[in-house]
UniProtKB/TrEMBL annotation:
Family: Belongs to the short-chain dehydrogenases/reductases (SDR) family.
Taxonomy, superkingdom: Eukaryota
Upper lineage: Eukaryota, Metazoa, Chordata, Craniata, Vertebrata
GO biological process, one term: xylulose metabolic process
Name of the protein in question: Dicarbonyl and L-xylulose reductase
PROSITE patterns: ADH_SHORT
Record's subunit section: Homotetramer.
GO molecular function: carbonyl reductase (NADPH) activity; L-xylulose reductase (NADPH) activity
Extent of the signal sequence: 1-27
Keyword annotations of the record: NADP, Oxidoreductase, Signal
PANTHER family assigned: D-ERYTHRULOSE REDUCTASE, D-ERYTHRULOSE REDUCTASE-RELATED
Gene3D superfamilies, per database record: NAD(P)-binding Rossmann-like Domain
């Protein structure tokens, strides 16, 4: 799987450095330089399913999904693809702290057919796929990394 420098930079901007410039700024630079490529925004399964006590989180992630779809439509003519990855709980350091209590995690895990939360590599590998030429015809899509949460 070959990945261009632009795609690697997009990965770093949006996943490793969440305080990086908004995707529209990066897209403007890509257009100005005539650089095709891909942008992957990190959303959440919570953009597709209401979760109690998560009104702001769910609504902002839904907005990110729609922004990504509009960007896909607008940037497609510039050969720039835009997608989202939508993971369930990810076992980052923060994820382990917030979800290590079996009593708290049991209800969420019961709704995930694969019976586990995502690992960081699950998200990274999905992002790399969407940045690669292997997904050359994929734009405006949300890739669920939820172990089946949304089908349960």
């Amino acid at each position: 799987m070959m990945i261009s420098l632009v795609r690697i930079l997009a990965f770093f901007f949006f996943f490793l450095f969440p305080s990086s410039p908004p995707p529209q700024i990066v897209a403007r630079q890509m257009i100005a330089q005539g650089v095709p490529g891909a942008i992957v925004n990190v959303s959440s399964q919570a953009s597709k399913r209401a979760l109690r006590d998560h009104a702001v989180y769910c609504s902002t992630k839904s907005a990110l999904d729609m922004l990504s779809q509009v960007m896909a439509m607008e940037l497609g003519p510039h050969k720039i693809r835009v997608n989202t990855v939508n993971p369930t709980v990810v076992m980052t350091d923060m994820g382990r702290i917030n979800w290590s209590d079996p009593q708290k995690s049991a209800a969420m895990l019961a709704r995930i057919p694969l019976g586990k939360f995502a690992e960081v590599d699950d998200v990274v590998n999905s992002i790399l796929f969407l940045l690669s030429d292997e997904s050359a015809m994929t734009t405006g899509s949300s890739l669920m990394i939820d172990g089946g949460f949304l089908v349960s």
